[in-house]
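Batch manifest, entry 17 of 40.
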Amino acid sequence: MKNDEMLDLCKEVVVNYFNENVEKTDEFKINKDNVFVVWFSKTLQNFKALVSTTISDGMYYELTYNGNRKELYLDAYKKWENKCIKVGE
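Output type: structure tokens
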């Protein structure tokens, strides 16, 4: 699978996951234009992408492709806090 194909698949998976799990009373759906890739890496036949959306819900998604098994794994995370911790001096 080529990089562009993988990134497009990741966006499609996140769109489907979001639309299937969004609060039904919100009556809101997203499309691929609402999804962006934060970080992407390819090693041999394996890929990993960190993906988010333009929706301010604190969610981000990690997608890992196992090229040996031809399987894509989705982990969905909620950001709870962002805090600065001073280290040193």
